[in-house]
Structure formats: C-alpha cells, structure tokens
Amino acid sequence: TVHHHWSLPIDSYMLQITFQQYGFSRIPSKSTTKPCSLPQQIGNGPYRIPRWYYNSVRMRCELFYWSGCCANGNNFPSIHNCKRLCEGFSFPKLFTRFLLQDALIITDLDQGHGKTLQARYYFNKYAKVCEQFDYRGIDGNRNNFESLQECQQQCPGLKTNPSLSTPQIPCFGDSTCGVNQFCHFGQSQLTTVCCNRSPTGDRCHQLLNIGLGNAFLQRWHFNTNSKHCEPFIYRGLQGNENNFLNQNDCQMTCFVNPCAAGEPYQIQGNTMQCSPAKPSMCPNGYYCHIGAEPQTTVCCGNACEQQVDQGQGNYQLQRWYWNIASQRCMPFVYAGLKGTQNNFLNQEICDRTCYAFENPCLSGKPQQGVNNRPLCSSTYNNCAITHWCHIGAVPQTTVCCPGKGRAVCKLPLAFGSGDANLKRWYFDQNILNCIPFSYGGMHGNQNNFLTQQQSGNPEMDSNGRIKICSKSLNSCSSTFWCHIGAQLQTTLCCPDRGNFYLESTACQLPLAIGHGGANLQRWYFNNNIHKCVPFIYDGLHGNQNNFLTQQECEQTCPVFVNPCASGEAQMGRGERPQQCISHNQCANGYWCHVGAVSQTTVCCPGRVMNSAAQGYAICQQPVTAGMGNANLQRWYYDVNTRQCLSFTYHGTMGNENNFISKKACQLTCPAYVNVCPQGIPLLEISTNQPRLCAFGENSCGPKYWCHLGLVPSEYQCCPGTETNSSACKMPLSVGIGGAPASPVNRWYYDAAASTCKTFEYNGRKGNQNNFISEADCAATCTVFVNPCDRTVTLPLQTCSNSEACPSGTYCHYGSTSQTTICCPFEGNRCSQPMARGIGSGSLQRWYYNSMKGICEMFTYNGIHGNANNFLSKENCEIACRINPCPDGQPFSTSNSVYQVCVASTLYINGCPNGYWCNPGSNSFTTVCCPGAVNNPCNLPMVVGEGNEKLQRYYYDAMARVCRVFTYHGMKGNQNNFLSQTACQLRCRPLENPCIGQPATTTAGQILFCSAINKEVCPVNFWCHIGSTPETSVCCPGATNPCSVPLSPGSGNADLSRWYYSADDRECLPFQYNGIRGNQNNFLSQMECSRTCPEQLCLLSIDKGACSEHQTRYAFDRQQNQCISFEYTGCGGNLNNFRSLVDCISTCGQLGF
User: Where is the BPTI/Kunitz inhibitor domain (predicted)?
Assistant: First the structure.
C-alpha cells in the first residue's frame, strides 16, 4: 500500500524525509506552525550526529550534536535546509511533484501469462531505471510500457534531479554540501546539486551506474575488479558517487593497483610501500614497483619467482608453473584453492610470462618458437636449414643461431665467452682428430660438440679402417647406426647421439634434412600427425628418422589407423586427429569413439541425436563388434529385452551403441528392470520408464503400491493394493536378488507378536509388508512400544507420583501415559550410569553421578532408559544421598540421616565439635562436614563442585579484605560466608563506633569517611570522626548537630572536641572518649561556631505544643531579620530567643 501525504504542509513533509536518514520515523503534524520556533532538543540517544537548529534568540542557524533519538522539528541535516526554512530563504518546490508519483511506479515486474512474447518496458523501482522485459500478452499490471521513452516520461523520478529525498541545493563541490551528502555534477546547473550519500559505504566500491537521461557526458569510474580508473558515458541523472570528472580525480580518490598481476604486498591490511633506495624491503616473491608517486611505489608479486603450491581442495586441475632451477615451464596438478600466482592455465601463458633468454649467438638473433621458446636441445633439433643448434649452459642459451655452414669441421677453435666452463670437443683440421676444450657458454661456432663421438667420427673396424654398411647388411655395432648416404663413401656407421639405435625409438626424432646438396627422396615419421611424410634429404648429417620408402617407415613407426566406420576422423590442432573423452569435445556432427588406445579414441563423423522424441536413435543402432585385435568389454542396448547387455568390441569401426559401462548405457537408453512380484510396473507415458515413487507420498495412484527397492531406480509403482493397514496382514517376503546393491535390513510387521521386526531384503519381488524403518512400520501397523530397557510381563502396571510401583520395579515416567509404567530393575539404581534412552522426546531429567557424588541434569529421549532417572533434583537427592563435604562423610543422626545445619550464624550452627556447616543451596547440601578449623580466615578460597552458582564471600588473608566469589554448592571449605558483613565480623574484628549500624555500600562494605569528605555519608547519616580511620564511619542520626545534647561517648581515646550548648548558646570544649558519641561533636571551636548558629537560625519558627502565651524572638529567613512571635511554653526548637538582642547577636551577623 502506498501512502501519499498529499495534504501535508511542505515543511512537515520536509522534516519527515529529513529524519528518515537515520531510521527515525516521525508522524507528520497537520499543524502549519514552523519548527523554527521550537527549542533545541538534543534527545537521549547514544550517538553524536552533527545537525543544525534555528536559534530564535540570535535569529540564526547554529550547529549542535543530536543524540540520534527523540528530536523535534527544529533539527536539520544541513545549514542550507535550516536557512531555507527559518532564515527567510525560499526554495523551489520542484520536489513536491515527487509526492505525486503514480502507484504504477511502486508495483513490481509482472510478466503476465500466455504464449505470446512481446518486448515491453517496466520501471525497476530498486535500480530506478526503465528496463526491457518479455510480456506474455495476458494480465500483468500497469507497470508495462510499449517503449522506453513512454516509460521514462510516465515515471517522474526519471525527469527530476538525482536525489528524491531532499530539495535541490546547488553545489560546487562536496565541501559545499551537508553531512552525508555529495555534489552531483549533472549536465547543467539545475542538476548540479547535493545528493544523499549511499549507505553502502565507500564510493570507490559502488558499481558502475551510467544513469538515466539524454546527456552524453565523459566521466571516469573506479573498477574494483581491474583496480583501475576507466572512462564511461554518463547520461546525466540518477548516478552514484563512483562518478569522476577526470581520471586524475578518480585516481586521487580511489587506490589504483599498479601491479601487473595480483595485489600489492600488505602487512595487517595496509599496503607496504618501498623505495628505489631500498628495493630489498619487499619479501621473497615480490619486487619493488617504482611508480610515479609513493602510492604506486609498492611491492608487486613476481609470479615466476614464487614457489609452486599445489594448494588445498578436492580438485585435480592440470596447470603449469615456472621452474626457476630448470628455467622452464613444467606441469603440475592444482587442488583448486589457496595456491600462489605461479599458476598458469597452459604452457603458452607460462612461457609468455616467465621465459627470458640471453642471446648466445656470435652474430645475429636466434630463431625462436612460440613465446620465445627454444627450438632445439641436446636431444632434438627443429632449427631451420639456415640455423644451427647452439647448446649452451642453460635452456635460455640453447637456441637456433643463424649462419649454418657446411664445412663445420674446418671452422677454427672458438672458446666463446661467459663463465660456464663447459667441457666440449672440436675437430682439429691439422691433426684430423677431435680435441677437448673448455667452452664459456656463449658466442661460439658450430665446431663445438658435446662428446668426442658426436664430433663426427664414424665407427672403425679392427684394422683401423672406416666400417662400411648397407641397408641389407647392417654391420654397425649397438652404439652406431647405418647412415645411408648418396654414395658409398657416405654410407657408413655413425655414432648414436641419444640411444636411438632402436628403429622404433628413432620415430620420435624430429625431421633432419641435413646438408650436402644430394637431393635424395626419403620418408620420415611425423610424430604430431602419426603419419609417414616424404622429404628431400641433402645427404649428410641426418638422423635415424630417415627411411628409403614409405612402406619401411610405416612398418617401423606407429602410423595412425582411422577407427571411424563412416569417414575420416575430425582433425584438430597440428592436423592431428581430435582426441576426446566425451562428445562435448567433438564438433557438431561428430561423436567420441572410445578405442583401445588414445590414438583410436577420437571424434568420428555421423553423430545421431538421442532423445525420447526421436526414438532414442542411438539405442536403435544394432550391436557392432567392429574390427581389430582388441578385446574390450563394452555394453549395448538391446531393444527387444530393454536391457543393457555386454559384448566384446575389437577396437575400431563400431557405432554409438557402444558404452564403457552398464551405467553409461542405462543413462542413455530407456532400460529398466521389473521388480514387481506380479505384473509390470506403472510406466510414464513420456519416457516409457517405470514411475518412481517414495513411501508415504501416494504418488502411484489407485491400484498400485510403492515397491521400495535397494536403489532409486527400483522404487517403482507395482500393481496391487496400496500399502496401508492391509499390508500388516501379509506374510514376510524376503524377495529375490539381482539389484546392483547388497541386501539391506528392512522391517516387517509380525501380526502374531504385534510388533515390528527386522529382516534382510534381497531387493526385488517383495510385497507391501516391507518398511525402510521401524518408524514407518509402526506408523502403518499398530505395535506395542515397550518403554523399559528390559522385557515386561503383561498386563502392564501404570504408575504416577501417588501410585507407587511394587518391589523390584520403578516408575518409568515417559512422555505419554502409555509409556509411564512400572519397569523392572536390579541392584542400586543410584549406581547405574546415565542413560539418555531412545526416541524423539526431549525431557529434562536428573540422574545421580556416582563418580562426582552429585545429582546432574540430562535430556531423556523418552524410552529405554534406566532406574537412575528422576523428575527433579530433589527426588534424586532424596533417593541418592549427596555428600557435599570435601573430605569424609557428613555427620549423621541415630537414624543415619545427615545432620542439617544453619549456615547463617557464625558460631551456633547445630554441628557437633570437629564439624562445620557447609553452606549449600538446600537442606540436602547444608550439612555438618568433618574437619573444622579454629581460624577459617587463613584457608584459601575454594569454588567447590556442583552445578550451583551461589554468591558467597571469602576472606583474602593477603589483602585483609572480604571478596565475593561464586560457590558451586559442594566440596568447599569454612572460608565461605553468606554475606560480606558475616565475613568481616568473623575474620576482621570490626569495632562499631556508632549507636546503631553504620552505613554500607551497595556491595555491603562499611562506608568510611573523614574530616575532609563528610559529604560521602548518605541522607540521615553523619560522619563520626573517631581516633582511627577504622572508627571514622557514617553513623545513623539527624544531620542537625546543634539540637542534640552533649555525649562524651565511651572508650579511652580522650580526644579534645567542642560541642554546642543550647542553654549557653555558645560552643564549649569537652573530652570525647572515641566511640558511640553523637553529632554534636566538632574538631574545633571555629567549626562549631560556624555550624550551629547557622543551623539554628535557619530553623523554621515553631510556637511549641502547650497553651501558654510568651513573647519570644526568632530569626525569619524570609524577611532576613529577627521578629517576635508567641511561644506556647513547651516544645519548639532552638530558633527561640528571650530578647531581640539575643536574636540579633546570634543571627543578625550571618548575612542570609
């Protein structure tokens, strides 16, 4: 319901919307009286909120702090509001049209109903914008417009200034606006006004809001995701505070993250700043980012230098990290949470981020692959024909260098540069031999070999001659291979550089076209596409992946065999067959063929759609064993039996009716098992599958009952009578096996015993007398529930508080009258352990804890407890005697009953000699305990044991004070008093100087005073100044000391004091004995003379209580002079003088 206050005066409405800023509701007054004449009202809340009020005396608006509660109308959120209303300023009444918004703006989106979708617009009252939605054609509400323009015209909030809660206040910046406001910069001066701040908090964390209107204003906002200030186009109205005129304002207000990745390093939530002078301030894994200003000179994370962390979680995500030691990206498995930044989605991103190289080439730049990665190493060479592989000390300097030459062995020795000190070999042309040398690691030439064999020496025979070989006669030893050159001189045994003398392993080598210009037709195995490809070999310096014919290559290397029966497999990256693990990885029209190996697990063409509407096309395909040598156990769907059956698949040329598991087959095709004892289950029309059900839901309908199987798919609706009370008459049926689960325990109703019993159900073909739980069985069939923990004999005997049970039994109090019966027990009920029982009850009970010797509370579930179960703590303590004493047994009377004592007195407590009274919480624990001591004040404080929380006092012998503590009721000691006074009287003798009891504090402590702080005494108490601080206390008595007679007191202090003599009307000395005096007792004559005349002259005039007529004089404090009055002869007070002179001499000089 929308309440429009259209009849309210403007000032009353303005006050109402003003107070709503702090959740303060005020019913608008119908009076037209302005609030400016009201007084300032701070209120009585707990806050200090700056507000403004109009000072009618000074005739101006002034600042004050409002408490947050209970204000009047003279309370404004800003000085502008106060001045506009109270200092004669006028303000536009544009905001009055806010009151006239149509009710359609308040209604929520309603799409209506129907099948026709029409593009419409509605006003989102939460976002304050018009948004598009799909209208269904029928019904809906009035918040429904055919165009965006119509919506914006109909909703007044879209055409006014941005703030709907206060009048327009022009501004030039935030400093010109009030508290909790900001300056909204619009398209014109009319919309550059003060708006209320958002209650959501920091402006930099507010979401981007382009606003509404027709303006196109270049603005900037802070993006919390990218941590950067970004431009946007503002429409002029209804924006928020995350709206800046330029990038500089945005960056000066909102922190911009200068780091390329991740957040800057923080200590206790504060960003750590570094400096160019101290870049080492940053911790490991961070570097000092030198920005343009101190705010951006911070420690940024270097992902490549951080340790790899597998993280936490249950995921297994394939990721890559940069290995600093090997200077390469390596794979690892990420657990999903709490890793470091050294964590990349793939090798390409890792290489692009972390890999850096140093140019080791003598001349020119090296050839590099994707993300600057090297193209060669000691085991492979993918360099172009114009480049050669320079093997450096680290992977960064192992690159393809330009300038590949043919006369490698004629090049001179080149030691290179660097600090690597690598052992290498070069060919010395003069002595025609390979010589070792130390290589610096960079800037060498091609006459540089890792081993002596690598430098090119062919295998020699026993006579020192080069060993000749051929393809038909491979005479090379195991560490050499037969190089087939262009002529006989180049067909010889070359050294094996990487143990690739096995032909099948040679297939892993890259293409090596060599050099020499021979132009020989050869074949090599492309390991990427698993095919043999022709190439032209130059005749020299090739490798073993070099075959004379295609047949020789295919016989040696594992070429790809197409496993698809209906065409070529889908090709992926690098022209390799697209491998897969599911259909989702294949393109449209392809399906994932799962072969015997990964090479035959590829995307094959001819995918068919599978759904109920299309007749489950996959499931209609015939079983196909395929071709090949594999023997794979697979599953197919048999349309005749509606079952998934196993078959042997040979690895290729199959179809989609081929599943890895029986479950996968059943998930795809409509296979089901008939679990009913008679007939077939109720089938769903749409899926032709059995209708699934659950016990008690009545989802099967008439003439069917719910068979409760072992797996969800076998909870089927079977034909027969429903599972109701008739099922309780059926015999037990254990069913038959076959379900994909082990037999389980179930419940059936035994009609003969009128109880539910367990049995083992095999899973299928059972009947209705089959329940998952005992509760389901009991809810269907009438059973007798035995609440006792032992077998009971019939008939049952009920009991109550008034009806006792026979010997050997106890009254079991259950949650109902049916479970409140006499149950048998043996032995001592108090020694039995606590038993919560079973059931759904939550009953508060008590049991005796024999280990602690106390009764404790517990929650009883309702049945199958034991005899150690009492309705109240008192019943428990009566049945099981409690020993509250710390040592020994309490004193017992002649009939073996514990002696109850009185703990409220100090010495007479009813206990015999050698016993003391334990101050428990009741008569069961307030008993006489052995081990009494003469001076309990020296004992330590003991909180004791039990469940009680009793406020008690003990004497602290070190501090010589009585302190409060919480006593648990038992196992304490004698240093335990019911009150502080009892503690003080027992442990620190207190000499009472008063006639009556001295004043005490709220905590029960004696209230002391002194000559300089007599005012601490409460009303009707006066400060007694004794001979010691202990006797200087607040004593009871009237506060007028001059009207009481002289009292020397008692004691032997012999103190010189002064008192006021009413007869002599002067202050006289006397000797005070120290205690039990009265108020007419002054430390000096001056104090006495100053106090008493003043006191008596201030007394009211009292004529007395007799019938005589005597002229007397008294001081009238209203007239401030002595006047005559008629005294009756008795009674009255001291303001009574026989002559005017006496009155004036006593009271005339006081100057009242």
Answer: 36-86, 110-155, 204-254, 304-354, 409-454, 507-557, 619-669, 728-781, 830-880, 937-987, 1042-1092, 1097-1147
